[in-house]
Amino acid sequence: MNFKKNILFSGNSNIKLVNKIIKKLKIKLGKINVSKFLDGEIMIKIKESVRNKNVFIIQSICNPINDNLIEMIIMVDAIKRAYSKNIIGIIPYYGYSRQDRKIGYSRIPISAKLIASILEISGLNHVVILDLHSEQIQGFFNIPIENIYTYNIFYKNIKKKKLYNPIIVSPDVGSIKRSRKLSKKINCDLAIIDKYRIKNNLSNALNLIGNVINRDCIITDDIIDTGGTIINTVNMLKKNGALRIICYCTHGVLSNNAIEKINNSKLDELIITDTIPFKNNFKNKKIKQLSCYNLIINFIKKYNK
């Protein structure tokens, strides 16, 4: 691949994923120095020329979410001021995406829109995000944006499994479109969990639409945070006669004691991607990770044509 007119930089949020990408592309990572002043301010120094080049920046807006966001926008500003041609922000996980509308309260922000504005103002010309929480977030940007879906990664993994009379399960109404795409790909039925949210990070499953008796269930969602939604879904499926239950989630936020809760639950397997770093160890018996690096590589190659 000819990368002479392009250069790729990375923030500190997801070095492992970036290393997979540069190894596959057979390119070197752009030289950059990221440091902090004693008061915590971030300082960026670009160590090589970006003049008249297309610059790719890979950075997940994940925990520590605010540090990673600030690091990215300062990096973009530094590159913009160094006479780059275009700056393309590749954001595997778009933090604040769940704050995409006002629900129930009149005095709350629409943070997903605010972050979009901040990224634009910093100097990005193009944004790429993997599996956005809601498609309307694309309308928050005034620059080109691509939402790359991950269901093909999950589909390939599902095809390797020996499943008995499988059915795709959407854990809530908001995930129906995502779940339907996968069910059509696999050519199987779709079930839906009807639920209401008690408060942030807590949900209560109410009603199951569909028949899961003596069937292997595949739950699909974009984000797993505390695990409350998924565990409630698993419990409801088991009560309704489900056999094996596997969950596919793009973004493994896994806050607080989510890993412990998942390992102690009736869920058979949780499969996430590496949009967010995940340190697997022997204690994580049920959690496995698939890589999304090929999706990002395909975009970079397409942009480079």
UniProtKB/TrEMBL annotation:
Its cofactor is Mg(2+). It is an enzyme of class 2 (transferase). Coiled coil: none annotated. It comes from the Bacteria. Residues 8-123 form the Ribose-phosphate pyrophosphokinase N-terminal domain. GO terms for cellular component: cytoplasm; ribose phosphate diphosphokinase complex. InterPro entries: Pribosyltran_N, PRTase-like, Rib-P_diPkinase. Pathway: Metabolic intermediate biosynthesis; 5-phospho-alpha-D-ribose 1-diphosphate biosynthesis; 5-phospho-alpha-D-ribose 1-diphosphate from D-ribose 5-phosphate (route I): step 1/1. It catalyses: D-ribose 5-phosphate + ATP = 5-phospho-alpha-D-ribose 1-diphosphate + AMP + H(+). One of its GO terms (biological process) is 5-phosphoribose 1-diphosphate biosynthetic process. Its EC number is 2.7.6.1. Keywords: ATP-binding, Kinase, Magnesium, Metal-binding, Nucleotide biosynthesis, Nucleotide-binding, Transferase. GO terms for molecular function: ATP binding; kinase activity; magnesium ion binding; ribose phosphate diphosphokinase activity. It holds the Pfam family Pribosyltran_N. Belongs to the ribose-phosphate pyrophosphokinase family. Class I subfamily. Involved in the biosynthesis of the central metabolite phospho-alpha-D-ribosyl-1-pyrophosphate (PRPP) via the transfer of pyrophosphoryl group from ATP to 1-hydroxyl of ribose-5-phosphate (Rib-5-P). This is Ribose-phosphate pyrophosphokinase. It comes from Zinderia insecticola (strain CARI).
